[in-house]
């Protein structure tokens, strides 16, 4: 009965009910987390992340933004005004035969090859296994013995770097696409 | 509040209050299917209103094939057509 009332309060957006829920389940959740991580401090962090995740929109973005490798050249976003961080210069259209055109261009191919070769080892392994070998994220995690989150971060960074090289080639100085 | 301010705020609200920069940084999570339901809805709302982010999203599979093409062992082997 109590559960039903609490659920109703939660659905109505009652903050006190949410706080009560957190109080009630924090302990068990923490003990569950302890089964998977080495220390209490790490478990606290795990549980914290899970609880706060529903509030701001910061899936992998937060960790990616810490690096000097943003997905997109920051100059392409507006720097001021109400629409700050929205496109100032939207991406170009890459049509489906872009890879075929790339295949015919020694220069383009060389640039992409260079970008892939310059990736840190884990990023290169992840992007190769995913995009060249066509393996699933689960398979890549097993092969490289990395966590699912880490796999995603590595894939994101690798694709971001290679994408920037390809964008420079396709939309930059050379031929317009 | 001017008419334009109001218009901006309504569009912003309808687009899930996400910036394009946030979309580009979360695109892998979106494609890997790891966004929470609420995040996914906001992402979809943004895509619905933003042609720039839709283009960005469509670039990712093109990028994947390009990575494959740029791998010398793949090129050296059978016809690249097999991979397209």
Task: Tell me about this structure.
The complex is a heterodimer of chains A (177) and B (84). By secondary structure, chain A is an all-alpha fold. Chain A has helices at residues 2-11, 15-34, 40-52, 61-65, 98-103, 106-117, 121-132, 137-144, 148-171. The longest helix of chain A has 24 residues, at 148-171. The radius of gyration of chain A is 22 Å and the shape is extended. The model of chain B is unreliable at 79-84 (pLDDT under 50). Chain B is an all-alpha fold and 84 residues long. The N and C termini of chain B lie far apart (52 Å). Chain B has five helices and no strands. The chains are: A mainly alpha (177), B mainly alpha (84). The interface between A and B is large, with 50 and 45 residues.
SSE inventory with pairings:
The complex is a heterodimer of chains A (177) and B (84).
Chain A: H1 2-11, H2 15-34, H3 40-52, H4 61-65, H5 98-103, H6 106-117, H7 121-132, H8 137-144, H9 148-171
Chain B: H1 3-14, H2 20-32, H3 37-49, H4 51-69, H5 72-76
Helix pairs in contact in B: 2-4
Estimate the helix proportion of chain B, in percent: over 70%
Work out the strand percent of chain B.
Answer: under 5%
Overall, the morphology of chain B is elongated
Report the radius of gyration of chain B as a whole number of Å.
18 Å
So what's the oligomer here? heterodimer
Question: How much helicity do the residues of chain A have?
Answer: 55-70%
What sequence of helices (H) and strands (E) makes up the elements of chain A?
HHHHHHHHH
Number of helices of chain A: 9
Instruction: Give the total of beta strands of chain B.
Output: 0
How does the major sheet of chain A shape up?
none
Shape field of chain A: extended
Strand content of chain A: under 5%
Helix count of chain B, per DSSP?
5
Find the biggest chain interface: A-B, 50 and 45 residues
Q: How far do the termini of chain A sit from each other?
A: 63 Å
The gyration radius over C-alpha positions of chain A equals 22 Å
Number of strands of chain A: 0
**Helix-and-strand structural type of chain B:** mainly alpha
Biggest pleated-sheet summary of chain B: none
Distance between the termini of chain B: 52 Å
Q: Give start-end ranges of low-pLDDT stretches of chain A.
A: 50-56
